Amino acid sequence: MRDDPSVIALVDRVCGGDQEAWNELIERYSPLVWSICARFQLERPDVDDVGQSVWLLLVENIADLREPAALPGWLATTTKRECLRVVRDVRRRDRQGLPADDQMPPDLSAAVIDQEIIEAELNAALRTAFAHLPAHCHELLSLLISDPPLGYTEISQKLHMPVGSIGPTRARCLERLRRSPDLTAVLDSQPGSVTLKGTRR
Predict the structure, then answer these.
(1) What is the pTM of this model?
(2) Which residues pair with 200 in a beta bridge?
């Protein structure tokens, strides 16, 4: 994943002052930051504090990254450090109200952080691939995963599509999604992983 050209290109665009690239970067990696915060069981104000600190540190350091493709790892490590800083600050402010040591959040191992990075990259690639689907696939899959779920009859009425063609069209759209270059680059680095519901590489 360290040679992911999409990450390198994104970092280059951000360093070149591209605001759209910066927004894309935050959207892509915010779930990674929040998931690490969640493992430390931080309160929402502390999560916001960590997030602001991480993005500010990235603004200050992104041009100095030796390996732009290592950005996800840098974000994960920085988020972990900021979470630990917040936990230490809370301890100092409220020593009487501290939980027992065995109730404190565990230090995150490298394996856990690596898994968080993989999941963030997969989710980002899936969102990008989904956005690039043809309109009819985008509409159908969006309705199929809506909450609350819609029945085929209701989907048929909304899309003016015969009920009998929904399943085959869904299969073709999912196959197109699975074969998206945005997704295959990430999936190829994780052989044997589950890609989409009901399919494996």
Answers:
(1) 0.59
(2) 194
